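Predict structure. Chain length: 483.
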Amino acid sequence: MTLRHLLHVVGAVLGSTGLLMFIPAVVGVIYQEWSELPGLLLAAGVTTLVGYVLWRIFDRPGELSPREGFAAVGLAWIALTLAGALPYLFTGSIGNLVDAIFESAAGITTTGASIFPDPSVLSHGILFWRSLSQWIGGMGIIVLSVAVLPLLGMGAVQLARAESPGPTPDRLTPRFRETAKRLWFVYLVLTGIQVVLLWVGDMTFFEAVNHSLTTMSTGGFSTHADSLGGFSAYSQWIVIVFMALAGVSFALHYTVVRRDPMAYFKSIGLRVYLGIALGAALLMTIGTWGGPVSDTIREALFTSLAIVTTTGYVTADFATWIPALGVMIVGLMFVGGMAGSTAGAIKTDRLLILSGASRTDVRRLIHPRGVFVTRIGNKPVPDVVVETVQTFFLLYMFAFMTGTFLMAVIGAIAGADLDIITTVTSVASSLGNVGPGLGGVGPTGNYLGIPWAGKLLLAGLMVIGRLEILPILILFNREVWRR
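Prediction complete.
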């Protein structure tokens, strides 16, 4: 493999993204925001042109190996993060490159962290780009390219595998392109249904579209400073339902609709995911008891699902809750939804495998001559999958600890007022693609005050967390670059 082949893939992905960038420009025309229209068009044009040139002048790869697929995806997402900063810079919405990269990374990785204290002051075009970037990043722009654009050739399955979250990718059909189309179809239909349900409530059509895009992607960008807190109980309940759906494997959704209506009830991963979310909501309800019962339950369930699914919306300032709940919220940042969903963090499927592997190891200690197989329910888990999950978990925790150390060093050097809570939770939230943390980056705060080096670090952690470490890590392996 050569860099030329990688750049061909990067060009295809950038070209796809550039075409999608024209949509915010159309939104700007609809709302007659003429002052920012040239910037939006320029950003879309530059991204499309660069992508097209890279795609045309560099060699098309043949069948990609797994390592080549991982490397291509890692490089493509770095390029996407840089390209996503252009609309902010060219319209003047953000005045410096570091902040624009941070906001772009928070969008494309569906993290939802933001430097904007009040996003409602932004133009409709930029607001829509923030939401759209999360939506295309949720299911994955490479999976979208595989589904609708015949640009990636023979290596499509390796690219999609490298981008798709979870220990093992779900494949609904023998051809991955057909699988990608069906997953995106489910994603699009659920988004459309939520738009209608929110629109008939107290949201405008523009608000309904934006919040639907950032709910199904588990992104969490809102059009208002108080996130979902200013909307009605009806709108919040609709978002609760769709956050829960977004945390479920989209392949499982498709299976229920087209093949097996009872598949939800057969899924152990789904039971664990919902059990964690509902259990956390129960503890939050008990810990915040005192106001109207319906409001207390709704806020607890909303907060639990927003953190577990890594959506990051807020309706209550959970930073003011009792410390025990704060500790639990930080723990939930590491959980995530099911593999194959748009949620970030570790994923409940991996936690299930780790739990099963731990039980197997204990039994081997008790019965040294016994032969034991890790199982999830009645299904055996291959040893190679167990080893991969264990490696991922170690790398994830290493990234968290290293990121926390580096953030503390950056804060000390820059003289920034970064307390330990802000430092730890900003890293955990960024790596898990959650958005809000505690302390200075809590539900009522933002990331504007983070030093510039800290913002770049957190943006890098967002990309690492979204791609689940390996596609970025493999870029630094010399074996990848040997012909």
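Summary: The mean pLDDT is 89.
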